[in-house]
Every structure is written in structure tokens, then in C-alpha cells.
């Protein structure tokens, strides 16, 4: 592989390495999306095991394989567990108020929430934890962790309270911008360190969640009330996914506190 890349322009070679490493960081999420697609294509209603239950068992098996082969660390597994708990809690509420639903039957569920759904949130946590390690992420002008955790808590609470109280998302967007407007992520693709504004990184990640959301609804894994006939999820939900990424950074920081540069890298 290195020999082939050596024949390319350095910028193109680095871009390809960047793409490969990003895909590697998103391994757990990629496997989950692949399972959604494959099961949608092959699953039959009369089979003895419900599709949702298979997805839950498959997610557990994938997690066990990643840990056994050391493709994922136990530290990253703790992130996944944390995201699973936080995500399932939100799923229980959101399905109760009708924000979205899971139309297929299953046994492995809590209320109206099949247990595989928590792994979709866990995939986001897995990606952020793995990308931190794979790209050796460092932060310049990182805000105090207490600020990030407080913002993450406010975002999580607002996901619930905006159904009954005024939606404070505009204030949350403003807080995220004020807290992180100077923050830069330093990452190493191959040899030379590169940098990117953290807010841009969060926006790009939210965009890919939008793509994953469309895969999920297209395969019928979950549906929004307006999707009796499937159509793409509105890009107007981008703001909610951006806030989810901010919350995700806060949760991951509990296990992977932001590290400063070593003194040789300057954005």
C-alpha cells in the first residue's frame, strides 16, 4: 500500500490515508449500518428471530470481537457503554412522546425501544473515542472541561424539556460557538500534523450522522411520523445532530480528557 501511495501526489496520498483512517475509526458504526442494510434486504417476517433482536445480538457479537481482537480498547468500550445508557434513556422518552418509532416487533426491548437502538448512539461514541486515538488528537485553546460538561448536560436536558418548555437550542448553539470558537484540533494523518477548527469538525460529523439517519429510516429500522411513505430526513434536523455531537464530545471527555499539543505543533 505504501509503495502505491508513494507514486501519488503527496496531498492525494495523504487524503486517501485520511479517508482510510476515518473509515477505520467509524468501524463499529459502519458495521451497524451494513447490518441495517443487509437485514432489510434478506429478513423475512416469518423467521423465528425478529430482525431487531438479531441486530441487538449482532451488535453485542461485534463488540465482543472488537475487544477480543484488540481492535477496540476496554477504555473505548466504557465510552460505548456510557453512550448506550444515555442514548437508551433518550430513546425511551422520545418514542413515548412520538418523536419517532420502531415499527417492527422484538423481544429484546424496553417499552417501545429495541435494545439495538442504544448501539446506534454508542457508534457515535466509538467513533469519537477511536478517532482520538487513531489521529492522536490534540487541542489548542480547549475550554475548561467543566464548561463542556455543563453544556452537554444542558443539551441533554433540553432534548427532554423542549416538549414542555421553551426550546433553548438557539442559546445552546450560541454557547457552543462561544466556548469553542478558538478551539483547534491538531491531528496527524501520516507524518505532518494538521489542524481544523473544532466547530467545523463537529459540523462535518453531524453531516455524516444525517447520512446514517437516512440509511436507518430507508431500511425501516426506525421511522419519523411523517415517513409513512419514505422520504429523506429533513436537513432541518442538522441542528439537533450538531448538538448531539457537542454532547458526545462532553461524554467522551469523561474518558478521554482533551490533550494539549506537545509544544511542537502550531495551527
From TrEMBL:
Kindly give the Pfam families that the UniProt entry links to this protein.
DUF817 (PF05675)
Per UniProt, which keywords does this protein have?
Answer: Membrane, Transmembrane, Transmembrane helix
Q: Which InterPro entries match?
A: DUF817
Q: Transmembrane ranges? A: 12-37, 49-68, 80-100, 106-124, 145-165, 198-218, 238-256
Protein name, entry field: DUF817 domain-containing protein
Q: What is the lineage of its organism?
A: Bacteria, Pseudomonadati, Pseudomonadota, Alphaproteobacteria, Hyphomicrobiales
Amino acid at each position: 500500500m505504501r509503495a502505491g501511495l508513494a507514486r501519488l501526489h503527496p496531498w492525494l496520498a495523504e487524503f486517501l490515508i485520511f479517508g482510510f483512517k476515518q473509515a477505520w475509526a467509524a468501524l463499529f458504526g459502519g458495521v451497524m449500518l451494513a447490518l441495517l442494510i443487509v437485514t432489510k434486504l434478506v429478513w423475512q417476517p416469518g423467521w423465528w428471530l425478529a430482525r431487531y433482536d438479531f441486530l441487538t445480538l449482532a451488535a453485542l457479537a461485534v463488540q465482543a470481537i472488537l475487544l477480543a481482537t484488540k481492535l477496540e480498547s476496554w477504555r473505548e468500550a466504557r465510552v460505548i457503554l456510557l453512550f448506550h445508557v444515555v442514548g437508551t434513556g433518550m430513546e425511551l422518552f422520545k418514542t413515548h412522546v412520538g418523536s419517532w418509532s420502531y415499527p417492527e416487533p422484538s423481544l429484546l426491548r424496553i417499552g417501545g425501544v429495541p435494545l439495538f437502538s442504544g448501539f446506534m448512539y454508542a457508534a457515535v461514541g466509538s467513533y469519537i473515542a477511536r478517532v482520538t486515538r487513531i489521529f492522536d488528537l490534540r487541542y489548542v485553546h480547549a475550554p475548561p472541561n467543566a464548561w463542556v460538561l455543563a453544556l452537554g448536560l444542558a443539551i441533554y436536558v433540553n432534548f427532554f424539556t423542549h416538549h414542555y418548555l421553551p426550546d433553548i437550542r438557539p442559546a445552546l448553539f450560541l454557547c457552543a460557538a462561544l466556548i469553542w470558537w478558538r478551539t483547534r484540533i491538531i491531528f496527524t494523518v501520516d507524518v505532518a500534523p494538521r489542524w481544523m477548527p473544532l466547530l467545523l469538525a463537529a459540523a462535518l460529523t453531524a453531516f455524516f450522522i444525517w447520512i446514517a439517519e437516512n440509511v436507518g429510516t430507508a431500511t425501516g429500522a426506525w421511522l419519523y411520523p411523517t415517513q409513512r411513505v419514505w422520504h429523506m430526513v429533513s436537513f432541518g434536523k442538522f441542528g439537533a445532530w450538531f448538538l448531539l455531537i457537542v454532547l458526545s464530545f462532553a461524554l467522551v471527555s469523561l474518558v478521554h480528557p482533551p490533550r494539549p499539543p506537545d509544544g511542537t505543533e502550531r495551527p
